[in-house]
Specification:
The structure holds 2 protein chains of 2 kinds. Chain A is α+β, with helices and mostly antiparallel strands. Chain A has 12 helices and 19 strands. In chain A, the strands form 5 sheets. In chain A, strands 1, 8, 9, 10, 11, 12 and 13 form a 7-stranded antiparallel β-sheet that branches. The radius of gyration of chain B is 18 Å and the shape is globular. Chain B has 9 helices and 14 strands. Chain B has a 7-stranded mixed β-sheet with strand order 3-4-2-1-5-6-7, with helices on both faces. Chain B has a 7-stranded mixed β-sheet with strand order 9-8-11-10-12-13-14, sandwiched between helices. Classes of the chains: A alpha+beta, B alpha/beta.
Chain lengths: ~400, ~300
């Protein structure tokens, strides 16, 4: 689960990680009042969306007069913000954060992630702050410092020293102390809230030697939500695609993509591979949908309905390798969904595995029109044929 | 010989009386797996399908000589179950559970460091040595005893591949699903090492997917030390960055974990990378050769 910047900063503030003074607003008539509460000028106006790359997309603006704050807020609120991470339609900005501007001496980068290869949390620190860290990693890897943490001892002062004394030039003693303080608290936040990522880019040292998190990005491990229930209220469904939201409600793994071939598959790996098969057949997948190993008829019906709701879908490929999920259950679900919705696109079905004969029989006996693929290669061919037909139309 | 699991393996099921545990225990018995005990805390002394249920894994080891464990315990309690099995002296732990918090797995991995136990999973279909035993949730009948080793991060995708192998006449020595989570107990390399030393295994199919760098590391290892033919398949070439594709570990993040990078790393190591999943079986037959079809 992703958090907004302002939510992450609230958590930082309570956890001893300094952040700029700020005010969250959701309508432009609150903007002037915000400039009276928040020290400035200058002020920084920041669109609150989950997608990264806001700065370059006009989602972060500096204002020197209260009227500039109002103009900046009006340019963002209620309007779509299109960044490199959002797709062409962008995401609507519902909230804006107005913050005090700071006199910055130095911009750094600090984050904490799980190092998958080492199976431990790792803190990443770099003096190349305010930049795209992936680019830094590619061009100047020597500027990136990494510190693995032994979770039985927790974050130790030496971990902090290893990072802070790796800076060149060295920071002032006050700033060094501030940095180590932020690092220790960042580790605490990471482990107590079951984060999968916490990123501060930039972490700044101000002219008066303070260390402040200018930005904040935080994701919580979805698998840990059962013990982080108080964070559930921070979820912002407005950031999600409506079809993805619907899928979530039925425990389906659905991700909307840009293509026009819908796919329904059991199992995440096979679902990804099926998307790839569609692409190799010369088409683009419209979605990832893993109905899961233990899907019931209801889940299949809902999954199929979600695909049908997507108006861009020109053909649907159902690829099921029945293990725990039996083919007869799948077939009944599809027939049930077809009964409720008008299917206006060709349906390609590939069934294999447990109770496959029953499944095929159920489909055959229904008045559903569909093409049967005996194996994955044939499924790909049928998809390709459908694509060329659509193109001719 | 197969690797890790054979017909002599004595299996305990942790969470035997739960819905999933019960269903799959029956399936495993039907396949011929030697299930010697079950564990459900508080239900010690009961019986399930003629199998004695114990309160602790330790009791199963002491009284029934269990040496392999299969875990169907819900996510909040699964890390505890893994550690219980390892501390009781179980040598092979298979954790099927999906949804264990990553930080719990960090603790588990630190715990296992000084023990001899091998952990497969979590979030995996398990392990099968066809004709000998299966411990997990994979459909038994699609497998056939033979000479191909299979290691995979996925479940149903593995079934697809195994089914193709069996259909072209290539049986399998052992198939292992290592799991779809960001942190898993054992890696491609851990099992490649075992397949290298296994006489029955003549070649290996490696099924990877987006996220992490396990495939890149495997490529390095294969190039340096693995002398049997390998065919790799990587799922997720069309997966968008930043999105979790079903598996908790299947995510391209921080520029890492792209399918293309993995494919290139494998090709650079001289490994055959199958691009079209539909024809993997046929490719395997060409690369591994007919003679590997006989056990």
């Amino acid at each position: 689960m992703k958090l907004h910047e302002y939510q992450a900063k609230d958590i930082f503030r309570k956890s001893g990680i300094p952040v700029p003074l700020g005010e969250l607003i959701s309508s432009s008539d609150q903007a002037t009042r915000a400039t009276q509460i928040i020290p400035g000028p200058p002020w920084v106006v920041k669109a609150q969306v989950h997608a990264g790359g806001r700065g370059k997309a006009g989602g972060v603006k500096v204002a020197h007069y209260p009227y500039e704050v109002v103009t900046a807020v009006e340019s963002m609120l209620g309007k779509p913000l299109i960044t490199r991470q959002t797709g062409p339609a962008g995401v609507t900005v519902n909230q804006v954060l107005i913050e005090e501007g700071l006199e910055i001496e130095r911009e750094l980068y600090l984050s904490m992630v799980i190092d998958r290869a080492e199976s431990v949390p790792a803190m990443i620190f770099s003096q190349a702050g305010g930049m795209d860290i992936e680019e830094v990693a590619a061009k100047s890897p020597h500027l990136i410092l990494k510190e693995h943490v032994d979770t039985s001892s927790g974050w130790m002062p030496y971990n902090g020293r290893n990072l802070v004394y790796g800076l060149n030039p060295l920071p002032s003693p006050t700033a060094a102390k501030g940095l180590m303080h932020v690092m220790a608290n960042l580790y605490k936040v990471f482990v107590t809230l079951d984060c999968s990522l916490v990123e501060i880019n930039p972490l700044v040292i101000t002219k008066d030697g303070r260390v402040i998190a200018l930005d904040a990005k935080m994701s919580i491990d979805d698998n840990a939500m059962f013990r982080q229930k108080e964070l559930l209220s921070l979820d912002d469904p407005r950031e999600k695609d409506p079809l993805e939201q619907m899928a979530e409600k039925y425990n389906l793994n659905y991700i909307r993509l840009d293509g026009n071939i819908g796919a329904m598959v059991n199992g995440a790996g096979l679902a990804m591979a099926t998307m790839d098969v569609i692409k190799m057949a010369g088409a683009e997948p419209a979605n990832f949908l893993d109905v899961g190993g233990g899907a019931n008829e209801e889940m299949i019906t809902k999954g199929f309905e979600i695909i049908l709701k997507d108006r861009r879908v020109k053909a649907i490929l159902i690829n099921i390798f029945g293990g725990i999920l039996r083919c007869d259950v799948l077939a009944r679900g599809v027939v049930a969904a077809a009964g409720r919705t008008n299917i206006r696109v060709p349906l390609i079905v590939r069934l294999e595995g447990t109770n496959v004969e029953d499944g095929r029989e159920i489909l055959k006996k229904s008045d559903l029109k569909f093409l049967v693929a005996r194996d994955l290669s044939e499924a790909a061919e049928l998809v390709a044929q459908q694509v060329s037909k659509t193109e001719r139309i | 010989m197969s690797i890790l699991l054979n017909s002599e393996s004595r299996v305990v099921i942790q969470g035997i009386t739960g819905r999933e545990g019960a269903f799959h225990t029956r399936q495993m018995i039907a396949y011929g797996t030697k299930i010697v005990a079950g564990v459900t805390p508080g239900k010690g002394g009961q019986e399930f399908e003629g199998i004695t249920v114990f309160n602790t894994v330790r009791a199963c080891v002491q009284e029934k000589g269990a040496d392999v464990s299969c875990i169907f315990v819900p996510p909040p309690f699964a890390s505890d179950a893994i550690m219980e099995a390892a501390s009781a002296g179980i040598r092979l732990i298979i954790c099927i559970t999906e949804g264990i918090p990553v930080l719990d797995m960090v603790k588990v991995m630190a715990f296992l460091k000084d023990l001899d136990a091998v952990l497969i999973g979590p979030n995996c279909p398990g392990i099968i040595s066809p004709g000998k035993a299966k411990v997990g949730i994979m459909p038994g009948p699609i497998h056939r005893e033979g000479n191909i080793g299979v290691i995979s991060r996925s479940g149903t995708l593995t079934y697809e591949v195994v089914d193709q192998l069996t259909r072209v006449g290539l049986g399998q020595s052992t198939c292992i699903g290592i799991g779809g989570d960001p942190i898993v107990g054992s890696s491609f390399i851990d099992h490649l090492k075992r397949f290298r030393d296994d006489k029955q295994t003549k070649g290996v199919i490696l099924i990877g997917e987006i996220g992490g760098t396990a495939e890149e590391e495997a490529a390095e290892y294969i190039k340096a030390e693995f002398n049997k033919p390998v065919i790799a398949f990587i799922a997720g070439q069309t997966a968008p960055p930043g999105r979790r594709m079903g598996h908790a570990g299947a995510i391209i993040s921080g520029g890492q974990g792209k399918a293309q990078d993995k494919i290139e790393a494998l090709k650079r190591a001289g490994i055959t990378v199958q691009m079209n999943l539909g024809t993997l079986g046929r490719t395997a037959l060409e690369v591994m050769g007919q003679d590997t079809a006989r056990p």
